[in-house]
């Protein structure tokens, strides 16, 4: 993780703050580069910084053992990493793994705590974002149990595309299997099915989204539900409260 040159602010949470609060908040942030595969914290580890991705994104992974892992949430330019700090806790319950390299804004935990105490708008915004994360966690649990692998893979590719801001994704079958909590063979069959329908092109870990609209139709309803909830709770409420 290295410091980076300033980048245009594209984090939706920060952009939802009232202008004056946003200026004060950004003054205490530094722009860094998230490196692919970097582990920010392990389960039980101390959260030293909060991160607001601009173009990179972070996977939150629940672990039951060395080989039993499942991605339960994804944080990109729509959100932040470090939410336990808003509850007065500095311990991470999950593994935080950089899944997409790119710039992010970073703030020390102690400084973030002071902003949280002094800025009611930030408190209100992050309470709403916490609700969105709770919804995402609960839906992942249900989705993993009830929905077919092909539909779940379509949903996961769409979520990744949104945060990568690109149609080009580099994702191996082994990595996808870990993220979705299924066998590699299941990912292979699901990817082949999506490719046969002309929705994606897959070759040696490189995935290209060819038909986003049809990929949305192929995904389970969880993808549309997540986006709808975010718009209602964060975007629309933020406009109402922030003016």
Automatic annotation (TrEMBL):
It comes from the Bacteria. Signal peptide: none annotated. InterPro entries: cNMP-bd_dom_sf (IPR018490), Env_Response_Regulators (IPR050397), HTH_CRP (IPR012318), RmlC-like_jellyroll (IPR014710), WH-like_DNA-bd_sf (IPR036388), WH_DNA-bd_sf (IPR036390). The keyword DNA-binding applies. Residues 147-213 form the HTH crp-type domain. Keywords: DNA-binding, Transcription, Transcription regulation. Coiled coil: none annotated. This is Crp/Fnr family transcriptional regulator. The lineage of its organism: Bacteria, Pseudomonadati, Pseudomonadota, Gammaproteobacteria, Oceanospirillales.
């Amino acid at each position: 993780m290295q410091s980076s040159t300033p980048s245009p602010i594209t984090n939706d949470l920060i952009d939802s703050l009232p202008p004056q609060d946003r200026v004060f908040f950004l003054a205490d942030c530094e722009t860094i580069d998230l490196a692919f595969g970097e582990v920010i914290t392990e389960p039980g580890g101390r959260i030293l910084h909060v991160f607001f991705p601009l173009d990179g994104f972070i996977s939150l992974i629940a672990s039951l053992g060395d080989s039993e892992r499942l991605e339960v949430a994804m944080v990109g330019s729509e959100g932040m990493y470090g939410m336990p700090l808003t509850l007065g806790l500095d311990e991470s319950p999950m593994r935080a793994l950089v899944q997409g390299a790119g710039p992010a804004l970073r703030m020390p935990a102690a400084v973030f705590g002071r902003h949280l105490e002094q800025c009611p708008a930030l408190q209100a915004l992050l309470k709403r974002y916490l609700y969105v994360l709770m919804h995402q966690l609960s839906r992942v649990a249900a989705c993993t149990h009830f929905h077919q692998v092909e539909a779940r893979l379509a949903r996961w590719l769409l979520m990744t595309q949104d945060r990568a801001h690109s149609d080009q994704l580099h994702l191996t079958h082994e990595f996808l299997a870990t993220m979705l909590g299924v066998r590699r063979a299941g990912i292979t069959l699901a990817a082949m099915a999506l490719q046969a329908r002309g929705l994606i092109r897959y070759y040696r870990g490189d995935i290209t989204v060819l038909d986003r609209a049809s990929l949305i139709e192929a995904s389970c309803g969880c993808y549309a539900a997540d986006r709808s909830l975010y718009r209602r709770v964060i975007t629309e409420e933020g406009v109402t409260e922030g003016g």
